[in-house]
Specification:
Layout (H helix, E strand, L loop, with lengths): L16 E5 L3 H13 L3 E5 L2 H11 L3 E5 L7 H11 L4 E6 L4 H7 L6 E4 L4 H62 L15 E6 L4 E4 L1 H7 L22 H8 L3 E8 L5 E12 L5 E10 H24 L3 E5 L5 E4 L1 H7 L7 H6 L9 H8 L4 E7 L5 E12 L5 E10 L1 H44 L2 H26 L10 E4 H18 L3 E8 L3 E4 L1 H21 L7 E9 L2 E8 L6 H6 L16 H11 L3 E7 L3 E9 L7
Parallel strand pairs: 1-2, 1-3, 3-4, 4-5, 17-19
Antiparallel strand pairs: 6-7, 6-10, 8-9, 9-10, 11-12, 11-15, 13-14, 14-15, 16-18, 19-20, 20-22, 21-22
């Protein structure tokens, strides 16, 4: 195990509580010591029930559980833990005989499995992987929370700026209110304290009165021409906002530059509203000017904040989008645009899935509905046609009234993680295929041993010799298979050889004969038309056929309604093909079972099946260029028809 990198008490491991569930006290004690040395906080439980109770009470981040335990086994404990806490990382501990169960645990989202006796480096490596995964989830959650906070701050700043701009429009209402004050207002009234440059002009465009801010910046201007304070006063064709409002008797809103008492230029937004008297004539004009200098500072600060936000938004190594209630993408970061293109008002399902309808369990729609964050895993297609597995996390974005107007979606690429899981599944499939090959060889050895026993009982030495020849022949094949297992990491191509079709048929019949006799099942063979030679990988093809024959025996054994169980096995040349037909009067299969029988991990035998055998059988037959036809009826039996093509020029 020298190729596994060492790890010495990672920073985040000291904070991780770890539960050890095993019915062997020595193993619990040993692993507690190992985990303590590695910087973890270990807890122990002596069985599955106690382990579940400890988990629910202590909520550890990591659980290491044995697979086989009395009462609740490790698989059941894994499923209950994942149901209660999907993010808890569970590592399975298995004996060498539990390999199929360990592989099965991956279907229920186990993080890893380790075989006993426990290798300290393997344990350390597995713990580091899950610790890093926990840390990455924590960091991603922190990043997304910070992102939500930044978005909220940006929204608040934008709202504040809008309010500042809207304040000038509110002053138009003050202008209308001045119709009441026009006959009674006098200098020194309360409106003089308003924090803007406020002035009242008469119909001849002379300043009547101003507030303190106006007087402080521009001096005492009562009685003077309203135009003089503006930088463009006297410019040909230009009219002051006061003059324009007076002539049009309508409100005027525009940007101008006013000259202060000290000669300083003051950019302003000027609002002028006419005050119409009771008889419809112009009596006064209300001018409210807002100094744009402070607003520009706010805009510059906002721009700096926005640039920082956009930099963070674009540098995050995740695809981030903001979507409206129609699932249209209104904002997207650089990572998303690089991988999926410019949104251009399109929806997420158009860009992710090239589909006209949203996903069935769309997390964005769910967040709009309940206001909560949601997670969702799916497969998407990039603009280059690459398929990726992504984990999606959503969060609501609220408007000023607290309603949800948009949803933030963060998509993390987990393709490498899923590829690793696929590699582990492929490893399991490979080991399963080899195991089925060994099983077929063992059945053949059982057949040879049976012939030896019968020959010794009857003194038939020829039968003994034939049986021993079969045993030795299969032992040689078993040695080769064991070598394949030792080098399982390399894919195995079919090793074709020419065999007598009749001899191959008889060998296959001998493989299952002993088991059929054991359960009093009649095995009827017809090899009269099995003529010539056939090119097959003897080990692989024999294991595939042995699997089908053994399934036929199991089907007959389980059909208690049959008066006499029977299997018919025939082999014949039919045109350019070799046809192997196996018919039984067993329990039969329904349509759903027939549709899924060649699917990985599907089994109709319950705990008696692994869900690998027929998948491997189908792969072996198709690797030979052949096909499998199945016809079955519940309660009446099943017929398998295996057809192998004959290569051009090959004499069968």
């Amino acid at each position: 195990m020298s190729n596994i990198p060492s790890m010495h008490q990672p920073a985040r491991a000291a904070r991780l509580r770890t539960l050890i569930v095993d019915d062997e006290p020595d193993i619990r004690e040993l692993m507690s010591l190992l985990l303590s040395d590695l910087g973890y906080d270990p807890l122990t439980a002596h069985d599955g029930v106690n382990g579940l109770a400890t988990f629910l009470a202590a909520r550890p981040q990591i659980v290491l559980t044995d697979i086989k335990m009395p009462g609740m086994d490790g698989i059941a404990l894994l499923r209950k833990i994942k149901s209660a806490s999907p993010e808890t990382e569970v590592i399975m501990l298995s004996g060498h005989g539990d390999m199929q169960l360990a592989i099965e645990s991956l279907k229920f989202d186990a993080a890893d499995f380790i075989t006993k006796p426990i290798d300290e480096e393997l344990l350390e490596f597995a713990l580091r992987k899950v610790s890093e995964r926990i840390g990455l989830r924590t960091e991603l959650r922190a990043h997304t929370e910070n992102l939500e906070r930044l978005v909220a701050e940006k929204s608040a700043a934008l709202v504040e700026m809008e309010r500042r701009l809207a304040a000038t429009q509110v002053m138009e209402g003050m202008g209308r209110a001045m119709t009441i004050l026009s006959g009674a207002s006098a200098p020194g009234s309360q409106f003089l304290e308003l924090p803007f440059y406020v002035a009242i002009h008469d119909g001849q465009r002379r300043v009547v009165t101003v507030n303190e801010a106006y007087r402080s910046s521009f001096g005492d201007r009562e009685g003077r021409n309203s135009c003089e304070i503006f930088e463009r006063c006297g410019e040909s064709g230009w009219r002051s906002p006061v003059a324009e409002a007076a002539e049009s008797q309508a409100s005027v809103h525009r940007q101008e530059v006013m000259i202060g008492a000290d000669g300083a230029r003051l950019p302003v937004i000027s609002h002028v509203s006419p005050v119409i008297g009771a008889h419809g004539g112009l009596e006064l004009l209300l001018e409210v000017a807002v100094d744009m200098s402070g607003m520009r500072r706010l805009q510059e600060e906002l721009a700096r904040t926005q640039r920082k936000f956009e930099h963070f938004f674009n540098m995050v190594p995740c695809s981030i989008t903001v979507q409206d209630r129609n699932l249209r993408i209104v904002e997207a970061n650089a990572t998303f645009r690089r991988d999926f293109g410019i949104p251009g008002g399109r929806t997420c399902h158009e860009l992710y899935k090239h589909s006209d309808s949203p996903c069935g369990e769309c997390p964005v729609l769910a967040t709009f509905q309940d206001g909560a964050s949601h997670q969702f895993e799916t497969v998407v297609t990039t603009i280059t046609g690459e398929h990726r597995n992504i984990l999606v996390w959503t969060a609501p974005l609220h408007d000023a009234d607290g309603g949800i107007d948009h949803v933030l979606e963060v998509a993390t690429d987990i393709t490498q993680l899923r590829e690793l899981q696929d590699h582990l599944s492929s490893l399991g499939i490979m080991l399963g295929s080899m195991s089925h090959g060994v099983k077929g060889l063992l059945m053949a050895i059982d057949g040879g041993a049976y012939r030896i026993d019968k020959g010794l009982e009857t003194g038939d030495m020829e039968r003994v010799a034939a049986g021993w020849k079969t045993v030795r022949h299969r032992l040689g094949h078993m040695r080769k298979t064991v070598m394949d297992i030792l080098y399982y990491s390399k894919s195995r191509e079919p090793e074709m050889s020419l065999l007598s079709l009749a001899d191959l048929a008889r060998q296959l019949a001998e493989v299952v004969a002993a088991k059929a006799r054991e359960f009093n099942i009649a095995l009827c063979t017809d090899f009269s038309e099995a003529q010539g030679l056939v090119a097959v990988d003897e080990i692989a093809f024999s294991s595939a056929m042995a699997n089908i024959l053994e399934n036929a025996v199991d089907a007959c054994r389980l059909n208690l309604a049959a008066l006499k169980s029977r299997i018919d096995f025939s082999v014949a040349r039919c045109g350019g093909s070799a046809v192997f037909t196996i018919t039984d009067n067993g329990v039969g299969m329904d349509r759903e079972t027939m549709s899924n029988m060649f699917t990985l991990f599907f089994s109709s035998k319950g705990s008696l099946g692994t869900g690998i055998g027929m998948f491997v059988t189908h792969r072996i037959v198709t690797a030979h260029g052949g096909s499998i036809e199945v016809d079955s009826e519940v309660g009446r039996g099943t017929t398998f028809r295996i057809v192998l093509p004959v290569a051009q020029g090959q004499d069968l």
